[in-house]
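The data are quoted verbatim for completeness:
=====
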Amino acid sequence: MSSEAKRSGHPAALGPVTAGLPRRLRTPRAAPVDALEPRPKPGVAAAAAPSETFSFTLRPHEIARHLDRFVIGQREAKKVLSVALCDHFQHVRLTQEGSPAPFYQKQNVLLLGPTGVGKTHLIRSAAELIGVPFVKADATKFSETGYVGGDVDDLVRDLHRRAGNSVKRAEHGIIYLDEVDKLATRTAGAGRDVSGRGVQTNLLKLMEDGDVPLVSPNDVTGQLQAAMSAMRGGGQGQPETINTRHILFIVSGAFSGITEIIRQRLALTGAGTGAGRRPRKGQSDVDWLLAQAATSDLIAHGLEPEFIGRLPVRVACHGLDTDDLFDVLRKSESSLIHQYERAFAAYGVTCEFKDDGLRRLAELAAGENTGARGLMTVCERVFRDLKFRLPSSRVRQFAVTARLVDDPAAELKRLLAAR
């Protein structure tokens, strides 16, 4: 490397990728390409590779075990989701093998739960394991067809792109629609509701069995393709479409305010006073109420009966307490601490997280009331000055303890003084 590169900040000046990384993060020796491929843990299924021909051999327990690696808690959600995924994709496999079930009812899923509890992470991890294309979108960006805003058909087109432009792969993918509770219409307005009820109506055909053209007839690309086809003498022709019969739809939302609707229903019917109808030990009232959500509650919240009827599988995700957040940091393979270890290691600084430090981070994050997202908020606040000062100092190692988390400025001063 030239001396100019070293002075200039050129990427080559950073040195080897492993420079400064903790020893456990380095590759001990050169390994064959095959040996570098990620290997599943014992008893955990490996993620499937993309394939034109669909194959599914997983059991519900294997999917749940895989999800345990990345999402802490949510046992009921993992169980329900694993069974629904296996039922759906076993049906897809049998259909493609020549054993169709003409009266099969698709098991689309509704996840209820507060923000930051792992709803998106659950779906994404399951899709990666099964090896099917996956698309996530926010329901608030869509509007009824013909109005300004996104068209729900674009979800299927995005799935086609994620499938490498393969129609066959896209037709057994997963579409995940978040913030679906924002589509609720709670009060009757004077005008047409094009972003709530209108979007729900447009989703109905997709969630059961609809055909979506690969190219929207209303965009410039579609018009140009039609014109070029006509110029070649092919006429207008029939546009290529994707059928949604075997696309699994999973929707989720926090459903703020629905707990009061549920509470009122239980009080009127007396359903919440019997044995086994009260929160378990350690279970919050909100978690228990969400688990009691019925179709009538969702309709009262503002969702259309036809829309709710196409979501037969429903499960509530519980909020995360301090112990859960501690486990997220300490046990999850996607733990945030790996990101910070890597960030400091890029400057040759080893960051070691102690259990008391992780516990204190979890306690502060629990106070944010945003689930696992609160961990990032707290960590950025704690490590802000450390990330600014340590890369330019002679400090090459430090430990994250409860004392550092409580007073990062004082610990930074002590670290710099020691060098």
Observations:
- The longest strand covers residues 248-253.
- Residues 4-14, 27-44 have pLDDT under 50 and may be disordered.
- The radius of gyration is 26 Å.
- The chain has 18 helices and nine strands.
